[in-house]
Amino acid sequence: MRSSTVASVLVLMFSPIALAQSTVSVIWNSDYDTSSTGMNTTTCATVLDQSYPTFGAVPTFPYLAGASFVTDSNTTGCGTCWSLVSDVGRTTVVVINGAADGFVITEEAANDLTGHHQFLWYNVQANATQLDASVCGL
């Protein structure tokens, strides 16, 4: 019994900290693919612009996203780190903007999430898990 408790503690110690989880719709487009685009073009500009003036300044670039839970510049979702897992792949992104529904991610993140078939799957269902910001280098 004691060895299983130790094993459980070790697994928890070396696993990313999951803060919230849900199933979401994920689409991709090229809105966040250009590293020189200014953060001041996003809903999260007031929260992120000082630390990350361009998309390329975010440690996870090009793994960026818009998310439907970001509704204004004071949303606590700005700058959060998320793991997205589909039936065929996974990716980790930083939320920098709002979205109409679910998540909108970059082409490279979509490649990872769809097993490099993002052109075949415009809309993917994925499990979204919020991670500790440190997982994304924030």
From TrEMBL:
Annotated CDD domains: DPBB_CEPL-like
Compartment list: Secreted
Signal peptide coordinates: 1-20
Keywords: Secreted, Signal
Entry GO terms, CC: extracellular region
Primary localization: secreted
Keyword Signal on entry: yes
InterPro entries in UniProt: Cerato-platanin (IPR010829), RlpA-like_sf (IPR036908)
Keyword Hydrolase (UniProt): no
Family statement drawn from the similarity comment of this UniProt entry: Belongs to the cerato-platanin family.
Name of protein: Cerato-platanin
Organism: Postia placenta MAD-698-R-SB12
